[in-house]
Design brief:
By secondary structure, the chain is mostly loops. The chain has 1 helix and no strands. It is 9% helix and 0% strand.
């Protein structure tokens, strides 16, 4: 489910992100941090509505990660896969106060940039 156009609006999130939060962030039904509070969610839902995204088996959905989105728990015996692709200019590297104390492990977050030589 998504709230259309919410990627264009800043919505504050609750709590500070704990160290190594990536280890649990996709395993919980209701994250304790990093999500908007009930007041902001209600306001955005009233303003933008909530739309369900559906498609045939094997479909893929792509959207801006800042779009308010959510889904129900996976009730099937099969894994639900997610892939997050974020493009960011090398001139726009994360710095204080937005950078984490330590980067995510390489298997979760590739920070290698291809060389422009030989292209």
């Amino acid at each position: 489910m998504v709230m259309p156009c919410t990627h264009k609006t800043f919505v504050p999130t609750v709590g500070a992100t704990p160290q190594d939060y990536h280890k649990e962030s996709l395993r919980v039904a209701a994250p304790s941090v990093g999500s908007p509070d009930r007041k902001h969610l209600t306001h955005m839902a009233e303003e933008h509505g909530i739309e369900q995204i559906t498609g045939p088996a094997g479909s893929a959905v792509m959207f801006d990660s800042n779009l308010l989105h959510g889904s129900n728990g996976n009730l099937s015996p099969f894994a639900r896969s997610n892939i997050f692709i974020v493009y960011n200019s090398v001139e726009n590297t994360l710095g204080a106060p937005y950078a984490a104390d330590a980067p995510r492990p390489q298997y979760l977050s590739n920070r290698e940039f291809p060389s422009s030589r030989g292209m």
